[in-house]
């Protein structure tokens, strides 16, 4: 989702067709993290959690916050993942989310 948003941001709004504008609006509204963080998480999930790239992208797009939410995905993938591995996945997803929240809330980013 973040990558779609980043790509569409390169097109001037007045040059977008209707579907591109709808897609851009959707990606702005539902993108959970910035592209750079999303890419880092996808790479880390794929390398450290034995997930495919597609599975990693799916998790980053939705950003599940609990083991139960993660299990809903793995059930759909017809893949049994042990709780320890789910905890690792959860920590990767939540760590990047915390970093972004801290950047947004830091005093240097607040206008006076």
What are the key terms here?
single chain, mainly alpha, 112 residues, disordered C terminus
Report on this structure.
With 112 residues, the protein is an all-alpha fold. The chain has helices at residues 2-8, 18-30, 35-48, 53-62, 67-76, 83-105. The chain starts with a helix and ends in a 7-residue tail after the last helix.
Topology (elements, then pairings):
Blueprint: H1 2-8, H2 18-30, H3 35-48, H4 53-62, H5 67-76, H6 83-105
Helix pairs in contact: 1-2, 1-3, 3-4, 3-6
Uncertain segments are 103-112
Major sheet summary line: none
Q: Secondary-structure element order, as H and E? A: HHHHHH
Q: What integer is the average pLDDT?
A: 85
What is the total tally of β strands? Answer: 0
User: What's the N-to-C terminus distance?
Assistant: 32 Å
Structural class: mainly alpha
Please indicate the percent range of residues in DSSP E strands (runs of 2 or more).
under 5%
In oligomeric terms, what are we looking at? single chain
Helix-residue proportion: 55-70%
Question: What value does the Rg take, in angstroms?
Answer: 16 Å
> What is the approximate shape?
elongated
How many DSSP helices? 6
Task: Summarize this structure briefly.
The protein is mainly alpha-helical. It is built from six helices and no strands.
